[in-house]
Design a protein that fits this description.
This protein is of the alpha/beta class and 519 residues long. It has 16 helices and 13 strands. The protein folds into two domains: 340 residues, no CATH class; 114 residues, Glucose Oxidase, domain 1 (3-Layer(bba) Sandwich). The strands form four sheets. It has a seven-stranded mixed barrel with strand order 1-2-6-5-4-3-7.
Amino acid sequence: MGPGWRVVALALLLGVSQAGAQEGIFNAFSNNTGLGADYCIVYNPVWMPFPKSLAGATRYQLQDLTTTMLCNQTDVPPEGIKDKLVVVMRGNCTFIRKAQIAQMNHAKALVVASVHRILPPSGNQSDLEEIKIPVALISYNDVLSMKKMLGDQISAALYSPPVSPLDYSILIIFIIAVATVALGSYWSGVEEYESGNPAPPNSSTRTREQDKPNQPSALLTPLTVVAFVVVCCTMIVLLYFFYKWLVYVVIAIFSLAAAISLYNCLAAVMKRIPYCKCKFPCGNRRIEVCLVLLAVFCVAVSAVWVVFRNEDRWVWILHDCLGAAFCLNFMKTLKMPNFKSCVILLGLLLIYDVFFVFITPFFTRNHESIMVEVAAGSGGDAGEKLPVVIRVPRLVFSVATVCGMPFSLLGFGDIIVPGLLVAYCRRFDVQTNTSNIYFVLCTIVYAIGMILTFVVLILTKMAQPALLYLVPCTLLTCAVTAWSRKEMKMFWTGSSYEMVNPVGTVNEDTLSEPTSDYP
């Protein structure tokens, strides 16, 4: 995959997050088999608050009336609905009307099944005061799934456990993000050091990395940065309107990029191991058997992810490994030439992030942000999700684990974009021999910015554009450090990258190699 494709892939794979609403849990239990299942419901707590735990909830016998809408008294069956939890279809009459009829016939709770998007029920305040039974909405698909799995004899309870302010999955995501940024930036610096300090051709210390051509690097100049941000904006808008088709394009791009990235990461490790040097001839070259086997392994891993990508119970581990490799490879190959380009890139993507999270709800029909809609996969029919996030299952049970957010999420873009700045700091340290001061400080403030993001997310319980906190932390720290060390001019313009060609090309001398490769 060439550098140009890397830029397009990153534009496609910038990450986002999502948030929930007034949600509860419909706990269904089969009276025949003893099986149980939880389903998401949406309710209005102004009508009647739900119990906070299953132990505090009352279980009622479920009566399925989804063949009716309960808009008239004649919709009540002859045997009545007394002491039952009634499930009816959503129709032309109001929720208040349905609740009044259910209450007059001594039902204990009313659940309305909706084929379309479920929203909290609403009504006039004067009418609400008359409603004394719980009312909630559930997806009609969940009702069908419930009946198929549990049968006809079902009892159910409604409750709404609070979302824990702190889930330990956030800590795991924090470790993955910081470790990926630090390792990817350090790797970029190692490559910079080796390319700037080549061993003599006949030296016994010549590394196997130097025996091969350097991989082409993509260099983001200011003009390229602006074009890249335009591509980002275009892609997210296209995904919003054509999600159910483009999601498969993104999946295909990610599977290919993940296989290549995993190979590059593991190959870099294998080149440091003084074993597995067996080679076989191929034309004028000799190819290492280990690297061929490694390529097959990486393609197989990516293929396994494609096949089982919707198996949430375990595939998240494989997905996160591929995602981390993807981020590492981008930070190593996509290079910023100077701090000026970093400021332009991070500044524009900060505006992009804030706009698509906070501003777009004012323009969309359902008043949801485009970021949230795309991340949630609301336009998809088959439940496909964009592979653009690091995800870890929530470790504390709550309503969020049932209602579409069983994972804590962090977008790839929240790792890659600040990571490009950290990688530039690492390479600048190598070029100027500054004892990694820029790299260490930028990595630390990235971790601080991540903590700040999580704190605001917990306090507001709203989706947050992480770049809103990561960009100021990293850019300001780098600027203050360069200014205090009187290196701002060199840090701003870069020390040696002005001689490197734009995106997609490298100097010819970096590609020179022997015509054969014998041990």
